[in-house]
Structures are given as C-alpha cells and as structure tokens.
Amino acid sequence: MLSVIIPTLNAEKNLPQTLSALIPGVVSGLIKEVVVSDGGSVDQTCEIAESTGCRCVSGPPGRGAQLAKGARAARGDWLLFLHADTVLSPGWDEEVSNYMSQGYAAAHAGVFRFALDDFRPQARRLETMVALRCWVLALPYGDQGLLMHRSLYDRTGGYAELPLMEDVDLIRRIGRKRLIYFRSTAQTSATRYISDGYVRRPLRNLFCLSLFFLRVPPRLIARLYG
Predict the structure, then answer these.
(1) Which residue, 67, 116, 187, 208, could crosslink 159 as a Cys pair with Cβ 3.0–4.6 Å?
(2) Is 154 among the domain residues?
(3) What is the mean pLDDT of residues 138-144?
(4) Are 33 and 74 within 8 A, CB to CB?
C-alpha cells in the first residue's frame, strides 16, 4: 500500500534511526517498500539501505531530483517522503493507517508535527515557530514528512527537480485546503541548528524563502544557502 521514499547523501550516521522507526509499518504490512534515492554517497549509505531491505536508486545529487526519481521508482499507491535524518514517533503507523482508510484521504496530503532531538529551550522555541508558520502560512517543510496518494502526487505535478525549495514548491501547489496535520511527530536532527545557531539558521532559511517568493531562481538561492 505504502512506499516510503528517502533522499540521501552521505547519510550513514542518521539513516539507521530513520529506518528503525519504520519497522512497525513494515511488520504490520502497511509499508510495501522503502526506496532510498541516493545522490552519490561516498560513505556506507547505500550498503546500510540495502542490508535492511531497502531498494536503492542512484542519480545526481539534488533533493528535488532525488525525490522525483524515488517517486518514479516507487510501486505503492501511497507515497511517504521522509528526510534521512527524520525519525517518526511511536504510533505513527497506526495514525497513518487510520488516515489512509478515510474516504477523503486520497484528495489530501498529510504532514507530521515538527520536532528536534535537542532538549534545550532554543529547540522548543523553534518548534513553536514552525507550528506557527504552518498555521499562518500553511507551509510545512520537507523535514515534517509528506504523505499523499499517487493520484494527488501526479495531479499536482509532483516534485520539481529543484536544487532547493522543492518542498515549498510542491506544498504551494497542494494548497492549504488539502493539507492534513497528524498528531505524530517527525523528529529531525538538530545538528545543523546547533552548528549554525538557533538564530542564524532560521533567519537564513527565512531569507531564502523570501527570495523564492520573489521568484529568484532556486539555483541562485542554493548558492546562498550553501
């Protein structure tokens, strides 16, 4: 029923945790396959993926292109897109299974609540800011996961092969009225926020988002993003 698609690039450190959280979905029969769309890793990412039963497809780096390639390779009627450093909370599979059984589900897209694996107050403040962004702007990012039926994915055009903002681009095409927010969380690694700073990184993200809305080419934004 469900194909999970994970874009990777040198993700050997975080990928095992991400895959471990999917085990309940595999055991219950909810997950049909896990497709790891790799962008040319030079570490053990593909070896880890294949040793745990995932199907690994390879191509040029770039998350938009990798997500699109993974979706083309997937065989399930439902698609769940996850980042390689995102861990779904216990019970996610039951909630998703229940959601998928609803008559309206195929016409909507579901995302998880954003969380960070950092205990400090800065992380809680950022989680609150993300929740506010989702409520006001209806703009969940890719680190919150994205679940949608294949028919809706195809109808909205799927992921564009952009070097950056591929998640915002697709979410805008899906639209506020077709977004569903799950109670389960998608806990993402806080490493980048700790490294770049809990103020500097969100401000940089906001700056890049503003440039995207001003129709600055994503390839130029990607150079600024680093």
Answers:
(1) 67
(2) yes
(3) 96
(4) yes
- Residue ranges making up the domain that contains 52: 2-196
3-class DSSP state of 7: strand
d(CA 120, CA 42): 33
The count of other CB atoms within 10 Å of the CB of residue 84 is: 24
The CA distance from 125 to 138, in Å, is: 19
Residues 6+ apart with CB under 8 A from 17: 87
**Residue 46: inside a domain, yes or no?**
yes
Q: Between β-strands 146-149 and 78-81, what pairing exists: parallel, antiparallel or unpaired?
A: antiparallel
CA–chain centroid gap for 100, Å, is: 18
Give the three-state DSSP class for 208.
helix
SS3 62: coil
Write the pLDDT tens digit of every residue in 56-77: 999 999 999 999 999 999 999 9
CATH of residue 32: 3.90.550.10
Which residues have CB under 8 Å from 165's CB, separation 6+?
208, 209, 212, 218, 221
Query: Residue 155, CB half-sphere, CA atoms under 13 Å: how many?
Result: 12
Query: Number of structural domains, the chain?
Result: 1
Taking a C-beta distance cutoff of 8 angstroms, is the pair 182, 110 a contact?
A: yes
Q: pTM higher than 0.90, yes or no?
A: yes
**Which residue type occupies 60?**
P
Q: CB burial class (10 A; 0-12, 13-18, 19+) of residue 4?
A: buried
Is residue 94 a part of any domain in this protein? yes
What sign does the dihedral 25-17-191-57 (CA atoms) show? Answer: negative
Indicate whether 205 belongs to any domain: no
